[in-house]
Design brief:
The complex is a heterodimer of chains A (about 110) and B (about 110). Chain A has about 110 residues and is mainly β. Chain A is about 0% helix and about 50% strand. Chain A starts with a strand and ends with a strand.
């Protein structure tokens, strides 16, 4: 059974960096495509980007140069870093194995 | 970016009723490999999103056949025949043909 679990702080101050970890069990991140989706207050969903089985990345241009994905294959984890956050980055963040498996989501609030 | 326009934003239904949700894209979703990467997701209350349908009309494993998807090019429809209580939640269309992948605004299905 494939299981994804997000972890990270639920509160981040404006201008700081948001860092989240996705821990995967039941499937190797060296196969398939993985990534991050976020859901804003209300219903809007946004694809943030992907990291492939080889570690190559693709990002949503809306995030410009603020976002980066990395991974640790020895721990079967991948990571999100979003820099210079504002209140508009307040959302629930999901890690995903596109598109069949989702983590439970972590709510992140950006507030001073 | 491809804009996905989903209607209606909400639906109030009785159990056993049939409903349809429309999703229109600003560009054709036919990819260079001739496939059309249009998905439908459901986010049930308190749960992570779950994909129901991929490539317009293919049901994911375990999805009841009362769900069906149709359409082509820029115009797509999700139909639910004989709505059951477990079908309530927010439905999203999602295009995976053009980067960045983009979502419709969601349709909230509620009980009448």
């Amino acid at each position: 059974e494939v299981h994804l679990q997000e972890s990270g702080p639920g509160l981040v101050k404006p201008s700081q960096s948001l860092s989240l970890t996705c821990s995967v069990t039941g499937f190797s991140i060296t196969s398939n495509y993985w990534g991050w989706i976020r859901k804003f207050p209300g219903n809007e969903m946004e694809w943030m980007g992907s990291i492939s089985y080889s570690g190559s990345t693709s990002y949503n241009p809306s995030l410009k140069s603020r976002v980066s994905f990395t991974r640790d294959t020895s721990k079967n984890q991948f990571f999100l870093q979003l820099n210079s956050v504002t209140t508009e980055d307040t959302a629930t963040y999901y890690c995903v194995r596109f598109w069949s498996y989702w983590g439970q989501g972590v709510m992140v609030t950006v507030s001073s | 970016d491809v804009v996905m326009t989903q209607t209606p934003p909400s639906l109030s239904v009785a159990i056993g009723q049939s409903v349809s949700i429309s999703c229109k894209s600003s560009q054709s979703l036919v990819a260079s490999d001739k496939n059309t990467y249009l998905n439908w997701l459901l986010q049930s209350p308190g749960r992570s999103p779950k994909r129901l349908i991929y490539q317009v009309s293919k049901l994911d494993s375990g999805v009841p056949d009362r769900f069906s998807g149709s359409g082509s090019e820029k115009d797509f429809t999700l139909k639910i025949s004989r709505v059951e209580a477990e079908d309530l939640g927010v439905y999203y269309c999602l295009q995976g043909t053009h980067l960045p992948w983009t979502f419709g605004g969601g349709t909230k299905l509620e009980l009448k």
